[in-house]
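Standup notes
- DV: blocked on the single-chain target, sequence here:
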Amino acid sequence: MRQADLEKTLAPRQRSKEDRRQEIMAAALSVFSEQGLELAKIDDVAARARVSKGTIYTYFESKYDLFAQVMRHWIAPHVDAIKKMSVDETIAPMDAIETVIDMSYNQVRDHNCREILRLLVAESNRFPEVHAYYANGVISQLVGSWKLVLKRGVDLGVFRPLDLDTLPYFMSSPMLSLCFRLLMGENLSESDLAHYKQAHKDFVRNALGAPAA
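- DV (later): unblocked, structure below
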């Protein structure tokens, strides 16, 4: 069989395996959200995903590995996009910051992402692995990215002199506050979210001493 024909034959199977992995992670997020990490069982995830328990272990080493992969699946693309934006010197610092804020508010609209945040906060104190991922894989990388953008703005003279050790921790605070409001069941309209996002941008611009848009 020619290589091209072989690739065509294998492609559907490969896509099917990836689809199954995605379905397992979606089922796992649902189960973890309902039961928490400690009480959730692989059997429950298998039943929700309509696969055998053995199939799950084909893709994931353990319940904790599955939980970690679920976290990364929804969080890593957002963190990676922010990291990429922070080192792109073709983008003006304030434009980069506002783009990241836009991206963050799009994430907030996603119910799955809000559930991920809730799980990270709820489980990080009880499970060192979750805490380590939240601290090192999320917070430290986001703070590092904010710091790079802020330093570039200061060096270019578009931001006032800043406390680069402290201010990066405040850059996402309004968005996180909004997340907790939504997690507590507050019903916000698209108009509410748009006004909140603009207020976030205005808050950051004023804090940085950046010119008005």
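- Follow-up: The chain has nine helices and no strands.
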